[in-house]
TrEMBL record:
This is mitogen-activated protein kinase. SUPFAM superfamilies: Protein kinase-like (PK-like). Signal peptide: none annotated. It comes from the Eukaryota. It comes from Lolium multiflorum (Italian ryegrass). Belongs to the protein kinase superfamily. CMGC Ser/Thr protein kinase family. MAP kinase subfamily. Residues 13-304 form the Protein kinase domain. Keywords: ATP-binding, Kinase, Nucleotide-binding, Phosphoprotein, Serine/threonine-protein kinase, Transferase. ATP binds at K43. One of its GO terms (molecular function) is ATP binding. Its EC number is 2.7.11.24. It is an enzyme of class 2 (transferase). It catalyses: L-seryl-[protein] + ATP = O-phospho-L-seryl-[protein] + ADP + H(+); L-threonyl-[protein] + ATP = O-phospho-L-threonyl-[protein] + ADP + H(+). The keyword Zinc-finger does not apply.
Length: 507
């Protein structure tokens, strides 16, 4: 049945080990038991502690759903929360990457000019796609670029990203708290303008590329003033034309009063670097944003001769401003919770269809895998904090979704009994799956490390287990089964009838 894929997340991912921990929560490596693919599951704790943090998470999961590019990290799935109104944590399934560019730079002193070229090409290719969609990342740095041993890079962490809309109020979209200082464009350091361009991302990419070449940060400023000093030490003081366009009077006065500095040749700063690479780097690090190339223009630079091909550079249409309508208004915690829940439903098509069609009411109760994940994360985190290796908790079986049965006072026992029998019959039909081939069976057995076979499932757990029995259907007029004359004996009878029928099929 179509809904069968919806409940499967409760058993689809087998968590293996914690691979990272921070203020946001925990990241664990896991295996997708359906495909055998390794994934990373990010548990985000206390999402709604602060509206600003929750909005940042909403923005990131929305953007990563809308932006699909080989050099942008992909969200594969988001776990369905147990309840719509009260959930606090979310579990996001990403593709698993081996490292990040910061670690690659630190650990590899033998990167070749071909590595340098391929890294920059991938980053500009991602920027071309993002900027065509009118999205500015605003926090590009080596730690926000994931890397694999095959040299593939993927940009991540879109929490500070923004969609650029021509009629958007600048006060909402263009705060100065963007980008880690070392990779922050000079116009952001000095609040030069009230609205910015994609050139802020181009500057960050230039700083990252310079770090790839030298293995050290280019402008490691201690504060904003020191940052501007380091920038002007290399690029020289800005021209009078650039200074005239700066709206922030304090920043303008500081730069005008600065001792005259002259630009230094990049060849003296970056020894043994490819001359074509340095010419492009100078363009990327132009002090005035209007002098920096777009990502598309940078990809056409002679430095990428023989590598750049338009067919390998996906293009995106601008993202509708309606997707970011929430940025224009003041949100409460409940507002953000509803918006995040709606985003999560994008990864649960059947529930999304029912949500759109009927709002709160759904035809099936879908067990959530969050409770099981919470236990596994807690188990692994305890050992991770002590620096010890740990064995993941054994996976428990998940139940099928139960069809929602809403009983009113006017419903008699016979109707309820018939409904239960029909439900049991439906579950049995769903439980029958086509036989697996020998190859599929071997793969299935290798993935499920606990050695459990589908035929060993307790048939009663299809209707009664911790996941589904904890679910409730709240309907006006329903005061409980006993008050409607429905006994536990009848429910047990249905379960045992189901057990007998399943036993006959497997005998």
């Amino acid at each position: 049945m179509e809904f069968f894929t919806e409940y499967g997340e409760a058993s689809q991912y087998q968590i293996q080990q914690v691979i990272g921990k921070g203020s946001y929560g925990v990241v664990a490596a896991a295996v997708d038991t359906h495909t055998g693919e390794r994934v990373a599951i990010k548990k985000i704790n206390g999402v709604f502690g602060h509206v600003s943090d929750a909005t940042r998470i909403l923005r990131e999961i929305k953007l990563l759903r809308l932006l699909r590019h080989p050099n942008i990290v992909e969200i594969k799935h988001i776990m369905l929360p147990p309840t719509r109104r009260e959930f606090r944590d979310i579990y996001v399934v990403f593709e698993l990457m081996e490292s990040d560019l910061d670690q690659v730079i630190k650990a590899n002193g033998d990167l070749t000019p071909q590595h340098h070229q391929f890294f920059l090409y991938q980053l500009l290719r991602a920027l071309k796609y993002m900027h065509a969609a009118n999205i500015f990342h605003r926090d590009l740095k080596p730690k926000n670029i994931l890397a694999n041993s095959d040299c593939k890079l993927k940009i991540c962490d879109f929490g500070l990203a923004r969609a650029s809309c021509n009629d958007a109020p600048s006060a909402i979209f263009w705060t100065d708290y963007v980008a880690t200082r070392w990779y922050r464009a000079p116009e952001l350091c000095g609040s030069f303008f009230s609205k910015y361009t994609p050139a802020i991302d181009i500057w960050s990419i230039g700083c990252i590329f310079a770090e790839v070449l030298t293995r050290t940060p280019l402008f490691p400023g201690r504060n904003v003033v020191h940052q501007l000093d380091l920038i002007t030490d290399l690029l020289g003081t800005p021209s009078s034309e650039t200074l005239s366009r700066i709206r922030n009077e304090k920043a303008k006065s500081y730069l005008i009063g600065m001792q005259r500095k002259y630009p230094k040749p990049f060849s003296l700063k970056f020894h043994n670097a490819d001359p074509q690479a340095l010419r492009l780097l100078e363009r990327l690090l132009a002090f005035d944003p209007k002098d920096r190339p777009t990502a598309e223009e940078a990809l056409a630079d002679p430095y990428f001769g023989g590598l750049a091909k338009l067919k390998h550079e996906p293009w995106s249409h601008p993202i509708s401003k309606l997707e970011f309508e929430f940025e224009r208004r003041k949100l409460t915690k409940d507002d953000v919770r509803d918006l995040i829940y709606r985003e999560i439903l994008e990864y649960h098509p059947q529930m999304l269809h029912e949500y759109i069609k009927g709002g709160e009411q759904t035809s099936f109760l879908y067990p959530s895998g969050v409770d099981r994940f919470r236990q596994q994360f807690a188990h692994l985190e305890e050992n991770y904090s002590r620096g010890e290796a740990s064995t993941p908790l054994r996976r428990r079986h998940a139940s099928l979704p139960r069809e929602r049965v809403c009983i009113s006072k006017g419903t008699n026992n016979q109707d309820y009994s018939n409904e239960n029998r029909r439900m049991a019959s439906s579950v049995i039909r769903t439980a029958i799956s086509p036989p697996m081939s020998q190859e599929e069976g071997q793969k299935h057995a290798s993935v499920y490390q606990n050695g459990t076979n589908i035929q060993n499932f307790c048939s009663a757990c299809y209707l009664k287990n911790a996941s589904t029995s904890a679910s409730t259907c709240v309907v006006k007029g329903n005061e409980g089964l006993e008050k409607n004359g429905i006994s536990e004996d009848l429910e047990e009878k249905v379960v045992y009838e189901l057990s007998d029928r399943l036993a006959m099929m497997h005998s």
